[in-house]
Amino acid sequence: MFTFPEETKTANVRLMTASRNFDAVTVCLRYVGATNLSRNHALFSLATKFVSNGFLIFKSPTEDVITLIVNGKSTNFEVQDYKRNVWHTTCSTWDSASGLVQLWFDGKPSIRKFTGGSNITEPSVILGQEQDTFGGGFDVKQCFTGMISNVHMWDYILSPCEIQRYVDNLNFTPGNVTCMIFVTIDTPIKLPI
């Protein structure tokens, strides 16, 4: 579990990926935002050298909206029962062949929406901050405060059954592209022992 206890423009966790080219992505994570976190904030930020928002899961200040941005194209999803200071589970999928994205929030799937997009290459993946440039360009007003755990990333679209297994914390297939290497920047982040 990663703890982001205060607003900062430097604290982040970098995830090194084993793959360098993606034509599909699924990202699942569990998170709880701080009670006072009512502004924009990034939950997962993947940037490339060409697009700062290659695959971004972004919580809008509106209580019931999560935005997915793929290759710079934004799509809003309304979610039900969003509460601060409560653990939530989010899974997001995108496929370049169909151009479709989908959000699963606390086990409830959204409709699929079209964003298009070409392959994502040579990504920089960061938790806790939103990348405005490749690997940086952080804004304290978009940082995450709270806790994030169980981050998994796949280079394919998980089936609805497999996503439900993740949500229910059952025996699911772990993400196949995030390595065990975590690099932390700044002292406020607390890593598991």
TrEMBL record:
GO MF annotation list: metal ion binding
Keywords, ordered alphabetically: Calcium, Disulfide bond, Metal-binding, Secreted, Signal
GO cellular component: a single term: extracellular region
UniProt-listed PANTHER family: C-REACTIVE PROTEIN, C-REACTIVE PROTEIN-RELATED
Transferase listed as a keyword: no
InterPro entries: ConA-like_dom_sf, Pentraxin_domain, PTX_dom
SUPFAM superfamilies hit by this protein: Concanavalin A-like lectins/glucanases (SSF49899)
Domain Pentraxin (PTX): residue ranges: 1-193
Subcellular location: Secreted
Binding partners and assembly: Homopentamer. Pentaxin (or pentraxin) have a discoid arrangement of 5 non-covalently bound subunits.
Entry cofactors: Ca(2+)
Recorded family membership: Belongs to the pentraxin family.
Cofactor binding comment, as recorded: Binds 2 calcium ions per subunit.
UniProt protein name: Pentraxin family member
